[in-house]
Amino acid sequence: YDPAAAASGVGEPTVSHDGETRGDTCHIDVTDRWGNMIAVTPSGGWLQSSPTIPELGFCLGTRLQMTWLEPDLPSTLTPGRRPRTTLTPTLVLRDGRAVTAVGSPGGDQQDQWQLLYLLRTLVGGYSPQEAIDAPALHSTSFPGSFWPRTWTPAGAVLEDRLGDSVIEGLRRRGHAVELSGDWSLGRLSAVTRDPDNGTLSAAANARGAQGYAVGR
Question: How many CB atoms neighbour CB 106 within 10 A?
């Protein structure tokens, strides 16, 4: 049993200890000395479920799977309407200048894991690597974006490292807590640039042994 693979969420590349692979989405952050910065989360045209169009050379997109067939919903399948998406690459600006690019694979967990990062770095004073390494959690108390759109009322998935007092406190408050292991949640990466002195930095997630921070 591989807790990291089991808890990683829908739509991210995951490799189990036995070599089994699943998932698809990845995330890349890049910055340079001139202050150019990008955050990208490629996803939605993967070979496992999408046919390649020979004349065009790419796979058919799959984001229409996130629409609903029930009428009169915000995400109801309707001509001309864009489907919702879980993809949320993020740029953080300071005085109009980009200072951080951050993101993660992970389906509906992307925004939740990024929120932890932003609170820890912008409010808590964590370094980017400290924010990524800190214990993670997310809620499952909302219908999933992907079929079969399951959800757990009051559901909360936590890394065990959050500690017994936090875990028991959430249970006392009525949360349906699921523990996923010590290092299992989140696939965040980030790059930063200090616009005052040009210092560049990068941070990557050790979970799943798939993230890298590289500079030159």
Answer: 27
Please calculate the CA angle 16-139-10 and round it to the nearest 5 degrees: 35
Cβ–Cβ contacts within 10 Å for residue 41, how many?
Answer: 23
pLDDT score for 47: 60
Give exposure, 160-174, as e/b (b: 16+ Cβ within 10 Å).
eebeeeebeebeeee
198 domain-assigned: yes
CATH number for the domain including 165?
A: 3.60.20.40
How do residues 32-41 score in pLDDT, each as one tens digit? 999 999 999 9
Provide the number of structural domains found in the chain: 1
Q: What is the structure's pLDDT at 8?
A: 45
Any domain includes 131: yes
**pLDDT score at 156:** 97
> How many angstroms separate the CA atoms of 102 and 80, rounded?
30
In a domain, 57, yes or no: no
Provide the whole-model pTM: 0.84
| pLDDT score of 4 more than 80 | no
Q: Within a domain: residue 150?
A: yes
Closest to 180 in 3D by CA, of 15, 7, 12: 7
